[in-house]
Specification:
heterodimer; A: 64 residues; mainly alpha; 77% helix; B: 436 residues; alpha/beta; OB fold (Dihydrolipoamide Acetyltransferase, E2P); Rossmann fold; 3 domains; 5-stranded mixed beta barrel; 5-stranded parallel β-sheet; 14 strands; rod-shaped
Amino acid sequence: MEEITYTQAINELEELVKKMQAPDCSIDNLSQYTKRSKELLDLCRRRLTTTDTELKNILEGMTD
Amino acid sequence: MISQSIQAIPLSQYNARIRNAVAVAPDLQGQWVLAETSDVSVRRGHCYLELVEKQADTGVTVAKVGAVIWANTFASLNARFQAVTGANFGTGMKVMVRVNANFHEQYGLKLVVTDINPEFTIGDMERQRREILTRLQREGLIERNRQLPWPTVPQRIAVVSAAGAAGYGDFMNQLRNNPYGLQFYTCLFQAMMQGANTVPSVLAALQRIEEVIDLFDCVVIIRGGGATTDLNSFDNYELARRIAEFAKPVIVGIGHERDVTVLDYVAAMRVKTPTAAAEWLIGRGSDALSHLNELRHAIVTTARDLVTRSREQLAYYTSFIPAAARRIVDTGRLRLDNLTQAIPQAVSNRLASEHTRLGHTVELMQNAIAGHIERQQLRLAALTDKVTLLSPQNTLSRGYALVKRGERCVTDAAHLGTGEHIVIQMRDGSVNAQVN
């Protein structure tokens, strides 16, 4: 789950929205879809706003 | 001995003569001269330099002289030069300068620059820039960096700048204090951003970045802050080519409000200031956050709609099913009632018809029986007549007699032997007889 890139996550999200908006979307799939979208949304948001300490340390160590 | 016969003067006197000759020579004073600058340095406000002339095709120096711009004129000349060309007066520039020749007994010949025509320099810089751009175009490099794909949000940024520069500070502050809580990871690769060593220094920084290129999403080359805007060194083919061919998108923020350098043509993104570079990056991040919000909204709305729709469907069935069931029960009941009424009627109809049918049958049977009896009676009567007609008594009455031997009738005369006793029966009795 954590291995996918931001772009992959966004693409999957858009795919999910499309599926959910399709007229033949069954309520049976709904909880699965919403659960997955929440995971992906959280992942994306985390990527943008939460510090990746490991990366931060690597780059700080490299600064001239 | 010799010194007494030859008239000699001290060097200072001789040099004084040169000084005077130079000072009064009309075509040496106030003359506009075309040259290239070299070894420009500013000390205590005075600008010292060499003016050289090189052969256009070979680059070999064909003329050279030391020059100076005294502090009182340099300040205003440089300001005007900067304003027009966007560059500090410096080394390696083609210049048109107005000079006075000045010979000093102690320091020798020096040209004193009293005026500069910046239009000439800008024309030359423009020509150089055009040449570089034409070459990059020809080599297919102009679009190369611009065509690299950007990650959705570039967060890992290699920064090429001078550590203490105000522009770098602005950039970092802007990124750190972005209002969206976006995280950026920066790493500074120091370079000199002005002066003669700018190009090799920036090239070296880019080389260091390339060695760890996978750690980064993009490169930001920034400088600025303060008044110094020496862009001339960035109009450089080597540097432009390096940026064009760089493996990650490069943002160039070395700008000047009005002017551009060749780097602006090859970089994936050109911004005017370091702050603008940071704003651009933050903009991409905030766009991504907005997009996430839109997606979240779409998901929530869609899910809610779907639930609502399903609930409505359920409600429909909830109300529909009892009504349908009731209708079914009612229909059944009605049918039952109909049947309840219909059955006795049908039964009685049926009984009546059976009754009729039965009556009919009885009648038929009676008729048949009567007919039969009648027929049997007629038959019996006929038989009686026949019996009466055929009875022996009747025959006997008509004069016939029966011959018996014992109890048995004898019908053939041949069956009787002589002497046999027989009985002859007649209408009113019998007599015994013997055959002769």
